[in-house]
Amino acid sequence: MPDVCGQVARELSLDPGQVEAIVRLLDDGNTFLRGLQQHKEDLGGPSTSRASSPRNRGWPRSRS
Description:
Elements: H1 2-12, H2 16-42
Helix pairs in contact: 1-2
């Protein structure tokens, strides 16, 4: 992962530590969301939600 973070840092003109921090935040957020999904399933809710649909992920497919 450090090699990839270094490459991304160079591409975006960021410090490698900043890129690693961003990756950790994204990973922590993803872990949190998986936990919420599991809790919802444990309570008997549906396994999918609007938040997990492709159009609501928050990452645009193309930049304008």
